[in-house]
Amino acid sequence: MKTLIVHAHPEPRSLNGSLKDLAVTTLRGAGHEVRVSDLYAMNWKAIVDATDYGPYASSPLKVAADSGRAFDAGELTTDVRAEQEKLLWADTVILQFPLWWYTMPAILKGWVDRVFTYHFAYGVGEHSDTRYGERFGEGTLAGRRALLSVTVGGPEPHYDSRGINGPVEDLLFPIHHGVLFYPGMEVLPPFVVHSADRITADDYPDLAKAWEQRLLTLESTEPIPFRRQNHGDYEIPSLQLKEGLEAEGRTGFGLHLRG
Question: Which of 77, 83, 163, 250 could form a disulfide with 158 if both were Cys (CB 3.0 to 4.6 A apart)?
C-alpha cells in the first residue's frame, strides 16, 4: 500500500505531529510506502491567485477555467503539480489536522483549493441525460481510500447527536463528501481524538495503540456508504435524491448515505 499523509499543524511536537510520526513508522514497519506533505514545514502557499496559472491566468481571473487550462497544458506551478502527482501515486490519503473553528486549518484548505484543480479533481467526464460528470464516487481519484485523523478540543458529548457543536459526522461531511468523495475516493470513518488539549503522557499509549490499530486495518475497513451520483439514486440533471430511497425519518446529510 502506498500512503500519502497530508499534515497540517504548525508545531512538530504537537499531538498532531506525534500522530503523523506514528503513522509513518507504523505503516513503514508494516511494509508500506509512505510520503508526507507537511504543509507548515513546506511553507505551503495557501492562497489561490494568478501566479498559480502563469500565462494561462486570465484578466479578470477565472479560477476554474484558468486552473483547467493550466492543468491541461502542464503549466501549473511546480508545488501544485508535485502534490497532484503524490495523489495519483497514493492508494490511501490521510489528512492529519486539528479541527479549528469547525473545519480544517486554512493552510490545508489552501492545499485543497490549489491542488484540486479543474480537469484534475473536478470538471471531468461526460455530461448527458444519464450522467453529470464523473464525481461523487467517480473521477480522477477513484480507487483510492481517504481517512481523516482529526484532533478536537472539546469532549465527545459536545459532538454527538444532541451536543451543542452538532454531530462530528455532520461537521466533517463537507470534507468527507465534498472534498474526498467528490473526486472519487472511498472515505473511511474518521479517527477522532476528543479533548485533545487534555491528553496527558499517561493517556498517550492507549491513544497510540488505537491509532496503530486503525492504520493496520486501513485496507479492510468498510468505507462510509455514500450514494454514488451516477448509479441511479439521483434525478439528473436536478441531482435530487429520488423519492422513496431514504430511510424513514432520515433528513439532511444522512439522505446521502445508503441503507
Answer: 163
Name 130's Cβ contacts closer than 8 Å, sequence gap at least 6: 230, 236
Residue 1 in contact with residue 218, Cβ under 8 Å?
yes
b/e sequence 170-187, b meaning 16+ C-beta within 10 Å: ebbbebbbebbbbbbbbb
On whether the CB atoms of residues 87 and 4 are closer than 8 A, the answer is yes
For 165-196, what is each residue's pLDDT tens digit? 999 999 999 999 999 999 999 999 999 999 99
Low-confidence ranges of the chain (pLDDT < 50): none
Give yes or no for a contact between 36 and 5, defined as CB atoms under 8 angstroms apart.
Answer: yes
Q: How far apart are CA 10 and CA 168, in angstroms?
A: 23
DSSP calls for 174-237:
HHIIIIIITTT-EEPPPEEE-SGGG--TTTHHHHHHHHHHHHHTTTTSPPP-BPPIIIIIB-TT
- Can you tell me the distance from the alpha carbon of 82 to that of 76, in angstroms, rounded to the nearest whole number? 10
What single letter denotes the amino acid at residue 156?
Answer: E
Q: Which amino acid is at 93?
A: V
C-alpha cell belonging to residue 69: 487550462
Nearest to 96 by CA among 43, 153, 36: 36
Q: What is the CA radius of gyration of the chain?
A: 19
pLDDT in tens, 103-143: 999 999 999 999 999 999 999 998 888 899 999 999 999 99
Would you state the cell numbers that stand for residue 135, as one nine-digit string? 464525481
With CA atoms as reference, report the closest residue to 80 among 126, 49, 125, 104.
49
Instruction: In whole angstroms, give the CA distance from residue 97 to residue 103.
Output: 9
